[in-house]
């Protein structure tokens, strides 16, 4: 869910709101200019805002919502989205991943970013990667994403559309049972939430 | 004892170190970009390193309750390698990021013309980005290196009170102090200061503008020397307040000049309580 400018306004200070107004104006300019914007080494103004959101907004959660809104407003082209992700801080990468549902990218352009995020070991990035955009993952990649969440301690509730997609998925059920068996054999606890997902896979099967 | 290690290369350290540092009182640190021991051969190699200082390392540190910030720069050693210098053109894209609290480590290694150029250019970048600068003093020919460093700082548009000159010792502290810069001391086995010499320097010059760091890296080093200095200070009769000033308030004041210090390393509760990643997702 995109946090709107109006919603953000209520949780930011006066100073941060003034900053956000001009940041969104910069993002609007970028969207209007499209490919005619600054090129080469000149950094577009909205990208400077995107980078500075944390210190300008104060509150980390609001800053992330601001970054997503800036991406949504500036509508960067797929190559720029990929660059903002690849050369982003942890916060910036999560914002790009969270913004994917609102950006004009084809699955062929968006999926590699999600796949990269799922390869990481940063649980915050993994949690972002299993958001709504993960619906475009194929069955194999999606099952491994769910398993990785359980493996790394990301609550399965972070997986968007889990109940629908896991329903009756016998292969996911097998993977979860094998993982649980491995943990039990090692004398280690089975992660919270595994039983819940396993129950989903057994339903409607 | 709350500790802010203002100079430590966590990239080269294990999670055991993070644990031990937290147990010793370390709650915040700054990781300056530096030489990795293995030469880089392309600017992209720096960018991957910067990305790690802005993503992976802060995440790793947060798991152990430590706030991680970094300083970014082309280091003096690799400033001499034309395969690396193009990274200077990429720095502006990185210096704007949250989590970057200074330009650094810059300074001299062998005092070459290429190092002159890189130092002046990066002091200018610091001024242009409203960032302070972390300038190290060379391992060899230290006093001459300090003097040349202070000359270049004086010629730059970065005010000297926004410069931290690091790796100081008994032979360089006096001139550095007179210049008005912030004073960094690395307490590092064999090659730099030890905690007892550090206490003697503090006795002579006082705690004003003094920062103490471990400079721990891939060499024979110790990430807990900051704590050892705190204890040696108390044993020598310094007050708790003096210790707090040197080990916490001074680094907060210096890196706070960036306006980008965020000292709460808290992670989202739901993730923090879970079986978060240790040793590659175990
Ligand atoms: Zn260093």
Give the arrangement of secondary structure elements.
The complex is a heterodimer of chains A (205) and B (282).
Chain A: H1 5-11, H2 14-33, H3 45-57, H4 60-74, H5 78-86, H6 90-99, H7 107-119, H8 123-129, H9 139-152, H10 162-166, H11 170-185, H12 194-202
Chain B: E1 3-5, H1 15-24, E2 26-32, H2 43-54, H3 56-63, E3 67-72, H4 87-95, E4 100-107, H5 113-128, E5 133-136, H6 142-155, E6 163-166, H7 173-179, E7 182-186, H8 195-205, E8 210-213, H9 225-235, H10 240-256, H11 269-273
Parallel strand pairs in B: 1-2, 2-3, 3-4, 4-5, 5-6, 6-7, 7-8
Helix pairs in contact in B: 4-5, 8-9, 9-10
Bound molecules: zinc ion.
Zinc ion (ZN) is lined by residues 7, 9, 32, 34, 105, 215 of chain B.
Family (chain B): Belongs to the metallo-dependent hydrolases superfamily.
InterPro entries (chain B): Metal_Hydrolase, TatD-like, UCP005295
GO molecular function, one term (chain B): hydrolase activity
Would you give an account of this structure?
The complex is a heterodimer of chains A (205) and B (282). With 205 residues, chain A is mainly α. Chain A has two domains: 1-137, no CATH class; 138-205, no CATH class. Chain A contains twelve helices and no strands. Chain A has helices at 5-11, 14-33, 45-57, 60-74, 78-86, 90-99, 107-119, 123-129, 139-152, 162-166, 170-185, 194-202. The longest helix of chain A is centred in the N-terminal third of the chain and has 20 residues, at 14-33. The two termini of chain A are 31 Å apart. By secondary structure, chain B is α/β, with parallel strands linked by helices. Chain B has a single domain, classed as Metal-dependent hydrolases (TIM Barrel, Alpha-Beta Barrel), CATH 3.20.20. Helices cover 43% and strands 15% of the residues of chain B. Chain B is built from eleven helices and eight strands. In chain B, α4 packs parallel to α5 (113-128), α8 crosses α9 and α9 (225-235) crosses α10 (240-256). Chain B is globular, with a radius of gyration of 18 Å. The interface between A and B is medium-sized, with 34 and 28 residues. The complex binds zinc ion.
């Amino acid at each position: 869910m995109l946090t709107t400018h109006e919603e953000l306004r209520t949780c930011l200070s006066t100073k941060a709101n003034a900053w956000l107004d001009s940041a969104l104006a910069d993002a609007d300019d970028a969207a209007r200019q499209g490919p005619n914007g600054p090129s080469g080494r000149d950094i577009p103004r909205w990208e400077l805002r995107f980078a500075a959101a944390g210190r300008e907004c104060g509150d980390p959660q609001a800053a992330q919502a601001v970054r997503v809104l800036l991406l949504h407003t500036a509508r960067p082209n797929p190559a720029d989205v990929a660059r903002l992700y690849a050369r982003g801080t942890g916060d910036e990468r999560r914002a790009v991943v969270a913004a994917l549902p609102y950006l004009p990218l084809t699955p062929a352009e968006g999926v590699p970013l999600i796949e990269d995020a799922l390869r990481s070991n940063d649980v915050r990035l993994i949690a972002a990667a299993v958001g709504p955009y993960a619906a475009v993952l194929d069955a194999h990649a999606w099952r491994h994403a769910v398993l990785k969440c359980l493996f790394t301690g990301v609550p399965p509730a972070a997986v968007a559309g889990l109940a629908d997609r896991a329903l009756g998925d016998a292969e996911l059920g097998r993977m979860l049972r094998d993982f649980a068996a491995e943990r039990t054999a090692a004398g280690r606890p089975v992660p919270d939430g595994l039983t819940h997902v396993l129950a989903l896979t057994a339903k409607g099967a | 004892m709350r500790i802010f290690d203002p100079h430590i290369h966590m990239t080269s350290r294990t999670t055991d170190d993070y644990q031990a540092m937290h147990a010793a009182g370390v709650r915040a640190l700054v990781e300056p970009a530096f030489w990795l021991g293995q030469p880089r051969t392309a600017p992209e190699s720096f960018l991957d390193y910067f990305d790690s200082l802005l993503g992976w390392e802060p995440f790793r540190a947060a798991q152990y309750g430590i706030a991680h910030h970094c300083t970014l720069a082309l280091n003096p050693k690799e400033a001499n390698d034309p395969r690396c210098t193009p990274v200077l053109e990429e720095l502006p894209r990185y210096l704007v990021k949250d989590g970057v609290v200074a330009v650094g480590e810059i300074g001299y290694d062998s005092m070459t013309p290429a190092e002159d150029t890189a130092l002046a250019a990066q002091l200018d970048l610091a001024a242009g980005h409203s960032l302070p600068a972390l300038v190290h003093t060379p391992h060899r020919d230290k006093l001459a290196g300090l003097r040349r460093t202070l000359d270049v700082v004086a010629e730059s548009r970065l005010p000297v009170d926004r410069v931290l000159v690091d790796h100081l010792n008994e032979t360089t502290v006096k001139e550095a102090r007179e210049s008005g810069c912030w004073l960094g001391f690395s307490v590092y086995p064999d090659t730099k200061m030890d905690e007892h010499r550090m206490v003697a320097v503090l006795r002579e010059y006082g705690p004003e503008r003094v920062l103490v760091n471990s400079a721990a890296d891939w060499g024979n080093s110790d990430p807990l020397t900051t704590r050892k200095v705190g204890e040696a200070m108390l044993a020598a009769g310094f007050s708790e307040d003096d210790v707090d000033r040197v080990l916490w308030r001074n680094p907060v004041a210096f890196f706070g000049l960036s306006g980008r210090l965020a000292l709460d390393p808290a992670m989202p509760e739901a993730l923090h309580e879970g079986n978060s990643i240790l040793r590659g997702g175990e």
